[in-house]
Structures are given as structure tokens and as C-alpha cells.
Amino acid sequence: MANDAVLKIIEQAAEESWQKLDLSDKELTELPKEIYKLTNLTELNLNGNEISKILDAIAELKNLTVINLSWNQISEVSEVIAELKNLTVLNLTENQISKIPETIAELKNLTVLNLSWNQISEFPEAITKLKNLTELDLSHNQISEIPDAITELKNLTTLHLSGNKIGEIPDAITELKNLTELDLSGNQISEVPKGITELKNLTTLHLSGNKISEIPDAITKLKNLTGLYLGVNKISEIPDVIAELKNLTTLYLSRNTISEIPEFIIQMKSLEILYLEDNPIKNYPIELVKKGVYAIRHHILLQELSYYQNNNPLQIERSIEFPPEYWTAGTSILSYFSHILSVNYPNQNIKVKIEQEGLLLRMIIDTPEGTTETIEQAFNDYVMVISRKLPPESLLTDPFEVMALKNKLQITEMELRISRENFAAFKDDSRQRIDSLEMKVNQFYNLFGKMIENLPHNSVYMNQFANHNQNANIANLANQINDHGQQNANHFNQNQDKNTAEILQIINNLRQISSQFPPQNQEDILIDLEDVETELQKPESDRNLPKLKKRLMALLTASTIIAAPVANLTDFTNNITDLAQKAGIGLLH
Question: Dihedrals φ, ψ of 251, to 5°?
């Protein structure tokens, strides 16, 4: 927004004595001096600008309680910030800050401080003097050690230190008795201290992306724990003591070396979500499916049809046709029938008949005991559900069956979206390749033509040229072509640099959007993005394309299972497909 438009907003705010002012994403490089007249302001949002310095005049805003300076270009926090004595929330995430002034300790009323995604290499001890802090975020910096002085933050309930270089959890952390959420994911931690049992109020513990090889017994003493995140470690088994976590609803163990799921997991009544992707697990207890632990649904949905074809002596008779407009509905119904068989009749010698009557699909199950079960589903009802005109609950009554159908619909929608986007990308890419080839052929003809034009138009000379100077002129032509090729190579390198910059920008966009996701989704997404970024920064010949494809598919899948409403979810999936296209990866091949 132009500066005069910002001035009009400030003028209106002054006339109407606004207490809240939002100047986010206005391309400001500094605060207009007129803003310092708004002495009634209590909340000021300057997110997403290009501000590089906090001017001293900000001290005039004595009544400010909340200031958001995230996503700017601030490299130094001015000591004048300490003049804002009423400040309770200070957000400086995503800047270029490397040090925090000692005067920040004067913000005695501060309860929330966010310094994530900066360049801080040492935990600022001045922060430990902020006795009223309840939330502190120093994630994604370069901190290697947590000072003992952190024990002074007695009122902390949330501490985020993910994405740093921390090698161990100090005993000092165990003094923070009011902590309910502790995030130390993405560090270099190899073990969890026994003293962690002192954190009696802890409900969420994030330790993914470290070097932990076993789940310590100490964690099981955290009786209020509802979320435990230990993905991307070196854990090979789930210990029995996990069953003592009676309030645990989410257990995240993806990307470890776990080979089996212990039976006691099935008895954990509060457990709702179990993440086990990318582990060498061969079999999932069927009771787990019945119980509805749906985080492993991707494995089950992909395997259940082939599993029951290979392992059950089913005799299936089919006499059905799917009209084109009902193909999706028909396959969804068959998938649902498969789910019923997998849950209700595992490894049983049953006979199954599937028949069609108009737009009604019927499955008849005959058991060895002589009982018969008939299940009917109508195409048009499924069409209504697939088109979101009816909820899945209108078809099914069992909550777990409803959940399974929702999962299938989400995956189907994702696949359809990717197919459309990949097809469009394929068409564009093909057109570009044809255009590029045509251009190169034309360039060669032009170059050769100029060579001929520069030769004397004399037949005698031409014959001499052909007979006596052939090698020299061919060499000259080759040199010119080589020079032209070198120019093309330089142009190619420039394009490569541009492509790399665009890729890094897309990854940065994905990080921004994922910051709006629920915490339980953010963790895995950020780890996937880091893996993708690491691979794409390598030379093309050194990239692990199967790994890249797997991570990009994981990101797409993650975007389909987010329960909370996220404004830019479509942009997130579009960015992933753009990233795949620029990296030369077909997500459905």
C-alpha cells in the first residue's frame, strides 16, 4: 500500500482514538512519524513489512500492551523498546536479530515473547529476568546451550526451543514446574534426564528430530501428558511403560526403526492418534483398526484390499457396472465394503457376493456358521457425500466407519487434485520443451547461415575453401559453435540460479503457511521441509529423487488431514506441486 494510504489510516486512527492499529503487509521500511501521535494505542501490528530499525520515537506509545514486528528485517532490537513498560506481548519472529539488549529485562509486565526464526546464538540471560513470562519461543535459532538461569522463569507454561543446536536437556529445565508444553524437537539431544518427572503439569512434549534411541521410563511418570512426539529419532521399540500414560491421546513415533506394535497399545483407551509412518512395521493388529487409531490409516487404506485378497479365502461374485458419472462413487463403495470385511471378518472362510440393482450396490456375506449379512449402499447417496452435499454421517452410523470414509474421501480428493495439477504442469512443460528445441534448431541455422554469408560468393574460392581450407574453417565453425555453446551454458547457469532462488522462495512460503497449522501438524511438516530444502540445495546429479518424492508426498498428505480451518491451505498444496515441478518430480509416477 502506498505511503499516503497508510497516512490516511493513521489520520483516521488519530481522529477516532483507535486503540488497535493493523499496518501489516504495507511494504513499510520504517514507521511514519505520524504514528507516534497515537498515544491511545494498546495494540500495534506491523507484521510482514520491510522495517529494519525500531525508531526511538516508539517510546511515545506508552499504552502499548501488544506489538507485532514479525516478518520484518530488523537486525538489532533498540534499547528504547524498554520504555514500553505496559507491554505484555512482544513478537519479533522472522527477523535477523542476533542479540537482545539487556534493557529488555525492564519489561516487567511481559508475558509472551517470541524471538523464533532469528540468528540468536546464545540464550539471552536478560530474558531470565522477565519473571512474568508465561510463553517463550526461541525456536529456530542457533542456540547450543540452555543456561541454568532459566530456573528464574517460574511462571513459564510454554517453552519452545525447537530447531536449535542443543545437545542436552539441563536439570534446570526440571525446575519449571508450571510448564504445560515443552518443545525441544529438531536438536541434537540423545537422552532425556530423569528429572523430567518433576514437570508434573506437562501435557505436551516435543522431542522429534533428535538422537534419542529409547523412550525413557521417566517420561511415563508424566501423568498429565496428552501428546508425546518422538518422531525422527532412533527408537526401535515401544516400551510397555507407555501404557502408564493414561491420558495420552497422541503418540508420534514416525521415522524410527520400530518393527512391531505391542498389543498393550490397543488397551490404551485414551489414545486416539498414533503416528507410525516410515517404520519397518509389517503387521498392524486388527484391534487397532477397530479401536479407531486412525493415524496409521494411510498404511491400512493402501494395503487392506490387497491384504484381504492375498490372505482371505474369499469367494467373490460380482455383477456390477459403473456408469461414468458414478465411477468415483462405485469405487468408494467397494473400498467401504473392503473395510467392512477387514474389520468384521478377518481371516474367515466366508463367501461374498456383490451385486447391483439399478443404482443400489449390495454386498451379501455368507459365513461358515450359516449366518448372512447384507449391506446396501446407493450410488446416488455416495455421490451426494462425495460432492459434499451430504455428510458421511448420513450414510453410516458407526463412528469408526464414518472416520474411515472421511479418510478415503480426503485421500481421493488429494489424488484428483494432484492429477489435475500434474496434467496441467505436464502440458506446460511439454510445450516449453518443444519451444526450447525449436529455438535451439533455429539458433543453429542462424549461426550456420551467418558463417555462409561471411564467405566470399565466388565459386572458385568456394571450391578452394572446400578442398584446401576445409579443416581450418570447420575448426573455426566449431569454435564459433563452442563459443555460442558457452554463452548458452552461462545462460543455463543463470537460469539454474534463478530456479534455485525460486525453489527456496517456495519453501519459505510453505514455512510461512505451515505456521498457521495446528502444532501437532507443524512439527512433521517443518521436518519434511528441511529434508526437501537440504536435497534441493545439492547439485541435481547428487539429489535423492525417491527421497524428495516421498517427502513431497508426505507434505501433500499432511495437508489433507488438518482438522482445523487454515486460510491458505490451497496455497500450501499449490506450492508443493510447484516445487515438485521445478524439481522435475512427478508426484503420481
Answer: -125, 115
Amino acid at 568: N
Task: Indicate the residue type of 106.
Answer: E
At 70, which amino acid appears? S
Q: Provide the Cα torsion 540, 544, 548, 554; round to 10°.
A: 180
Cα(505)–Cα(579) distance, rounded to whole angstroms? 10
Instruction: Give dist(CA 589, CA 53) in Å, integer.
Output: 49
| Residues found in the chain | 589
- Tell me the angle at which helices 399-453 and 470-514 cross, rounded to the nearest 10 degrees: 150
Predicted pLDDT at 116: 93
Residue 275 contacts residue 231 (beta carbons within 8 Å) = yes
Residues 6+ apart with CB under 8 A from 2: none
Rounded to an integer, what distance in angstroms lies between the CA atom of residue 77 and that of residue 528?
32
Place of cell 576445409: 470
Residue 292 has pLDDT above 70, yes or no: no
Q: Where are the beta strands (DSSP E) in 140-267?
A: 158-160, 181-183, 204-206, 227-229, 250-252
User: What is the secondary structure of 335-355 as a DSSP string?
Assistant: HHHHHHHHHHSTT---EEEEE
User: What is the distance between the alpha carbons of residues 298 and 296, in angstroms, rounded to a whole number?
Assistant: 6
Amino acid 226 reads T
User: What is the structure's pLDDT at 400?
Assistant: 54
Question: pLDDT of 562-574, one tens digit each?
Answer: 544 555 667 777 7
